[in-house]
């Protein structure tokens, strides 16, 4: 989808970018309302509909929107761990929310209402928790080195039949579908997926939900977040969407928008798409693999590709990987432990990262190795221009702007410092040798490393952001610690 404003004109001091406003008036000539949305600390879209007249009045100057967006969790509970943005004495004052005119698209399933994404600022400067601003700043830093980052994200998600309050029993079909009411009465394992059993890449299973399946594909294209590959994945009711590769900041937006799209269309088709990292015990989780490469800003050439094979490469895995690519990989590997909360942000994220379920558990890498944390993809299994890394740690619950910012910043740090690969690939590990370092197995362990005084995360993002984001994760942990789970109740009700 071509952006409406490929070259936005800067807003003059004390005045409007009149040519932008004129363009907007033409663009929105047939509309009477506009939807705007920002992205909160958990990666969720939060927004509202405003009149066209209001939108045109604030399109370049911005409007007030509550800072509570960054002071509460995904269920609108104020963070229990104190941050700058949840202090009651501050009164949750407004930030300035400015529409990003380049983000324009129309929502095809909502009568083509226009949508613009927001960025948040105060005093003319981006506010620290605004993840879109963080990612754009990292893109600008990368551009100073002559590179542009490209990314693709693969999202797996389970699709459930949305039940009524009383479930799926005869007679309940006449009731309105109400997932929340159902879960107040019933255990989550009573939810029924759209299909049963394991059948990845099935050409027949989509028939059970053909209209829903095809609607997602077609609407994604019309919504400006097209799907490159779309299929069933191994697991009951699981689909996988590989979003078409794009500039890294656009890709982050597209991940958030695709989730919004899938959930919206699910309501139309009686389905509930679930992007939890690990919704079901005993089955693979939902991944959110990230494919990442750098290209030369001028020539567009892949900066990770090597023109000729390196006969002196320390390992055959990197024989086709450029020096820049090696530095980038070293930077990512050195930072992985310290940036884990930005890749795996929820308590549930770490239940996916267990052995025997196609998810990494060790700090590792390898050529075409789907068991590694970072899979390297180079010739001869792809063309040189497609050379890239696939980071397999994130689940579908990722905050895309945080995850992509963290990986790009970590890789750029490796390029800046010309870091050497200290960790050999899995293929070079001698038989019976100790396994590589284990990744954090809980959000608690990940946050402890994230906030450590010598954490690379502090170097990449600064102390203020690290302390803020850690506080939001501590809140998530507190909610988890205070919850009494079904497992605990069943285990201890009679025995202790």
TrEMBL record:
UniProt entry keywords in alphabetical sequence: ATP-binding, Ligase, Nucleotide-binding
Record SUPFAM superfamilies: Glutamine synthetase, N-terminal domain (SSF54368), Glutamine synthetase/guanido kinase (SSF55931)
Domain GS catalytic span(s) in chain numbering: 131-496
Molecular functions (GO terms): ATP binding; glutamine synthetase activity
Record GO biological process: biogenic amine metabolic process; glutamine biosynthetic process
Top-level taxon: Eukaryota
Coiled coil feature spans: none
Pfam families linked to this entry: Gln-synt_C (PF00120)
Family recorded in the similarity comment: Belongs to the glutamine synthetase family.
Protein name, entry field: Glutamine synthetase
Record organism: Coleophoma crateriformis
